[in-house]
Amino acid sequence: MTEDTPFFPGLACWIDVSSIDPARSRDFYAGLFGWTYDIDPDPGGGGYTTALCGGQPVAGLAGVPVEADQPVAWRLYLASANIIHTADVFTQWGGQVLYGPVAAPGQGSVLIGADPTGGVIGFWEPGPPWLFRTTDPGSLIWAELNTWDGEAADEFYANLFGYQQHQIGDGRYVDYTTWSRGGPTMLARLQMNEDWARDIPAHWMLHFAVDPQIGTDGAVNRVLDLGGRVEIYPYDTELGRIARVADPSGANFALIDPTVRVMPPPTSIAEEAGKELSG
Question: How many CA atoms lie within 13 A of 40 on its CB side?
């Protein structure tokens, strides 16, 4: 969300990532995307860090290491006009609240929960002004829920926010829907299939745009140089050239160059996204 982006519930309004080594995570993303940082000086804030790209906020980074029993992951937050109402509807349709709702002084209110398919999602009722840069290189451009029950996920999130959902696969071998509501499409849902390892839980995969002059392949090389790892090497889709990677703490995310697009064979999205994760 930027100054010229209208606010509406269901919009992707923030992302943040946990870490086992916050300083190393900051160095990693600075090297990969050129991020600079604004670290909260309030001791009560735990050193929560706002990442900036081009001087605008693009993400949050944990300021303290994650506890041993907690996962290291990127988290997506969807905008809420009323966090209490969102919590009520979330549980009414089968979601499980994991944290909140709770006020974040000066920033609004937050809620974290698990949808009925197991995907963990955040909700934020932002306090004005709220800035969140998206779609440009170094920022979020696409967020995709990978789940074993696509139909249930579609129904649940449509009940929450009234998303218009469009099947871009064949609905059988490739079950992939896009979700939109009054703005540019940034959300999607992929049903995992037999190409995926069965122990992979439902999860959101956040896609970050890369500089076309560097490209996805060049960005992957940077990931390796900076101590990250590659989960799936670059492949071409109608969305762009994509790779799935992980930072040094193990948080998974995707890189995409949206300027490189192809007309794929019908099974490309599901097969490429799952084949190496199951191997």
Answer: 18
Label residue 159 by pLDDT band (50, 70, 90).
very high
Looking at the predicted structure, is the pLDDT value of residue 270 above 60?
Answer: no
Domains detected in the chain: 12-126 (3.10.180.10), 140-275 (3.10.180.10)
User: If you count them, how many residues does the chain have?
Assistant: 279
Closest CA to 273 of 216, 235, 218: 235
Q: Which is it for the CA torsion 68, 73, 79, 85, positive or negative?
A: negative
Q: What amino acid occupies position 213?
A: Q
Kindly give the pairing relationship between strand 187-191 and strand 140-147.
parallel
